[in-house]
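Hello,

Following up on my earlier ticket. Below are the two sequence lines again, exactly as submitted.
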Amino acid sequence: MAAFSAVKIPPPQFTTVRSSSQRPGSSPAHFAHSPSAFNSISFGSAKSVRSRPLFAVSSDVVSSDKTKPASSSSSNPAVTREVALELYEDMVLGRAFEDMCAQMYYRGKMFGFVHLYNGQEAVSTGFIKLLNQSDKVVSTYRDHVHALSKGVPSREVMAELFGKATGCCRGQGGSMHMFSAAHNVLGGFAFIGEGIPVATGAAFSAKYHHEVLKQSKPEGLDVTLAFFGDGTCNNGQFFECLNMAQLWKLPIIFVVENNLWAIGMSHLRATSDPEIWKKGPAFGMPGVHVDGMDVLKVREVAQEAIARARRGEGPTLVECETYRFRGHSLADPDELRKPDEKAHYAARDPIIALKKYIIEHGLASESELKSIDKKIDDVVEDAVEFADSSPLPPRTQLLENVFADPKGFGIGPDGKYRCEDPLFTQGTAQV
Amino acid sequence: MAMALRKFGKDGISIWRRGFSTTAGLESSSSKDATPVNLFTAINQALHIALDSDPRSYVFGEDVSFGGVFRCTTGLAERFGRQRVFNTPLCEQGIAGFAIGLAALGNRAIAEIQFADYIFPAFDQLVNEAAKFRYRSGNEFNCGGLTIRSPYGAVGHGGHYHSQSPEAFFCHVPGLKVVIPRSPYQAKGLLLASIRDPNPVVFFEPKWLYRLAVEEVPDADYMLPLSQAEVIREGKDITLVGWGAQLSILEQACEDAEKEGISCELIDLRTLIPWDKETVEASVSKTGRLLVSHEAPVTGGFGAEISASIIERCFLRLEAPVARVCGLDTPFPLVYEPFYMPTKNKILDAIKSTVNY
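Thanks for your patience. The regenerated structure is below:
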């Protein structure tokens, strides 16, 4: 039973789900002049390390027609200057923050299991920058950048990583559990797949508010985004939620960040059909595959999917082909991935590509971009200083928030909070 | 510092030599074909032997083929082939159910759940299927060849989802066995015994000790008996019971108590269900006091079962209430781990207050 040998998969047939703009050398509207950075059609060359050619397209979803003209000339950029700079700044923030996390981890300021997002910024920025404040984001353990893109201040995220009381979860959650009620970030889940049903429930709540309680908004339903990886797509919870979301036409978008590896397990060797987008139509929802290293393509797909959800047309499954430049976590020696695979994706760095795009289309000058870089460096430095100088949570916080009573176990018969009972501290003469 | 032990068991007395698993120092080897190895290497040796001795045994789980995130399965895929040692997708419920199916047809399925915290999706399959297979089929089928291995316990920086000790949940299920080793030598013998036991076994490995614990482990194939506790230190004032990594903390507490003139008897339960009540009862009959310590939260932890059973059996002999020094009743915390854990000082305080009751 050669169950998990690498199987050669023939190229997929074009279906109505995908756009037909597959001409080599052109990609709809974006990056047409960056052959080195974005060979978006196929790299079936000798250096290809995936066993199938990829068709990374900015695809349309099944129900709408292609309303945006495919403009491939360099004088017609797909985004305005403001949007381009916003995207650039967000991606640079994500990258700089994660790099600083690595530094702080190796200096011992941060501990535990930390999973960095380097390389995948285009997915977070491409999707989350289109959301409103009341839209919700549910993520996995690789959640720092999702929280940052959604608007959680870097100070709070960094303080949470340091375990300080000023962190977004008061130091209780750590790297893998970023929550923010103000910014509607429903966490950070250490366990893969656990966030998807939570996101499904949040989407149901949004729909209920809109349709039953009639608390409608002019822009439409509040959307929920659930981010997760390729490994999760083999987990039961994922399939259960695809079914429920489509059954009840929930305003949710399932965003698969397919970076090909689940710690050390290659996606191609763990999945019977590695094309995750196909799992959407199996449940009756559109499935879209997009190049996750290209923020503008991701944004275009995201716009369509979010618009669908807001109109009440139901869920979408979006598979973003992306890559993580670092290991699975900071404790992962990352020995299993081949160097030419890493080099291939390093050449498709989303930040470098966007920078090139901005400059080629005259949206901003190099010096303006550099000043954004500098500004972000200052923001991250400030976040570190803030986190460093913040206090650790007091010991009494340990018993708080176990139950609804913020002080944990409530009030004892003597009228005092049980967690402040001196017997609690008596057993620890020296911790 | 080798200690001579006596093992109380139904089949008589034998003398064992053992060094403390917490010290990296090695005494002169008592058998010539033993090497000092750490916990994951001992487990790796056990798996090699298990696969070698039975051609219908399989090892699978997440990331096992490259050696596993804790290196317990290194070399297995190369030696025995990918049909027998393979990675599964990320689906614990699927892994457990699939393992039960393999076991039901007479194979030895050694499934790895990457962290004990992830065992909960598999909990349904283990409780509702694995535990009841022989019972409800009237012995037509059984999944005795099933062994689930999983790293459990605090590791210092694990946080909520890499540090839990779920042994108590499984101890409540008739039909399953739960085994927890304390050291490399114990791990190899107990794992081989668990794999070959004709009942489904959940084998929890203390992840904190994977690299830290070093001990002389014989290279040969050997098994240690299940459902037999081991008295690893003799004393007369109080009996301490624990398992897994907690034993090293208990040992340190024993040392400190010794300096204060309290002589502690330390018992490693080794198998949590079915557990060796006779050994613990005999010890408590001698000392008259009992303290149980485990990392899992105190309410509903396995210490409660031990306490209740011993009180039933030794009520008139007990000089003091049974003390339980365990984790607090909160989710496993991130920053507060040192406050949450049953540390040596908490145990020491409890020993003193029990002795001075």
